[in-house]
Amino acid sequence: MTDNDPVIASFKRWVAMPVVTARCPVRDVLDRLGEKWTTLMIMALADGPKRFSELRRAVPDISKRSLTLALRNLEEDGIITRHVFPTNPPAVEYRLAPLGATMLEPLAGMIAWAERHHPEIQAARDRRRKELAAEV
Amino acid sequence: MTDNDPVIASFKRWVAMPVVTARCPVRDVLDRLGEKWTTLMIMALADGPKRFSELRRAVPDISKRSLTLALRNLEEDGIITRHVFPTNPPAVEYRLAPLGATMLEPLAGMIAWAERHHPEIQAARDRRRKELAAEV
DNA sequence: CGGGATCCCGCGGGATACTG
DNA sequence: CAGTATCCCGCGGGATCCCG
User: Fold this and answer.
1) Is the keyword Transcription regulation assigned to this protein (chains A, B) (predicted)?
2) How many CB pairs under 8 A join A and B?
3) Nearest alpha carbon to residue B42 among B66, B71, B68, B83
């Protein structure tokens, strides 16, 4: 589309390494992003802190267990912080740490791409499905 | 860091939906990106087409089976294309489709972020590990 | 309310062997 | 070389119950 040379150049470095062996920084971070819920958590916290139950409502189809684990991992990585208010019943607030906030921009790029190109992906999948149906 | 208001605004839209129910476009794409090898494949193909065996060498710790599956999925989504040369032995070339090429830019953003902030993440993890060791 | 502890199941994905 | 076909195991993650 546009001239991607600088972008491609940035990839060449990785591709030449000879690529991305098991424990490289990039794969480390990418794996964490692959963990099904982490990305959604960051998105849900983008517009400000939320409590545990608010996060559950924000992402309805997550189990308490998985929500807890996802939040713990993100906290461990310094992406979010966790504040316990010693009220009764307890209230716990999660918010993006400064490090987490810096993720929003690249993440927004991916989201925007997903939103823009999802129709094309769907079309490609439908095409493929038709082909499969036809050749039987 | 910088003023993130426009970025945050883009998230608010999703967070308000009330968020990202099970089969929304964004999660659809994000799930695919989570599939452990797909992102690496796109990276490996960024600087030009590659053959099956070249991809194996580029990402040494992937099994043939998983490589095949990852490539099939990406092809199904219209991200890459697959060309078979009827030589003997056969040669198969994979390359980014136009749709796939448009992914490089947002993906490069994530890669750059990962590269830049990985030290901070490691530091946070190490800190956490020390705390755990201390409280025993 | 915000978890922890257990149990349990599915499937992602590795290892191996075979094929055109 | 570029796959397919099987087999099999681990663990991600849901469901359920409990607790301060």
Assistant:
1) yes
2) 206
3) B71
Query: What's the predicted TM-score (pTM) here?
Result: 0.88
Q: Which residue, among A86, A15, A38, has the nearest Cα to B58 in the 3D structure?
A: A15
Buried b (16+ CB within 10 A) or exposed e, A1-38: eeebeebbebbeebbeeebbeeebbbbbbbebbbeebb
pLDDT tens per residue across span A80-123 = 999 999 998 999 999 999 999 999 999 999 999 998 999 999 99
pLDDT at res. A73: 95
Mean per-residue pLDDT of chain A: 87
Q: Each residue of A90-125: b (16+ CB within 10 Å) or e?
A: eeeebebbebbbbbbbbbbbbbebbbebeebbeebe
Rounded Cα–Cα distance for residues A125 and B75 (Å): 9
For residue range B67-103, list pLDDT tens digits in order. 999 999 999 999 999 999 999 899 999 999 999 999 9
B contacts of A10 (beta carbons < 8 Å): 108, 111-112
A100, A74 Cβ separation under 8 angstroms:
yes
Dist CA A91 CA A78 (whole Å): 21
Instruction: Compute CA B98 distance to the chain's CA centroid, rounded to the nearest angstrom.
Output: 17
Cα B91 from chain centre: 25
Q: Can you give the pLDDT at residue A34?
A: 86
B10-CA/D4-C1' distance, Å: 45
In this complex, the nucleotide whose C1' atom is nearest to the CA atom of residue A34 is D12
Whether the beta carbon of B27 falls within 7 A of nucleic chain D: the reply is no
- Cβ-based neighbour number of residue A88 at 10 Å: 6
The dihedral over CA atoms of B122, B125, B131, B136, expressed in degrees to the nearest 10, equals -120
Give the chain A residue nearest B22 (alpha carbons). Answer: A61
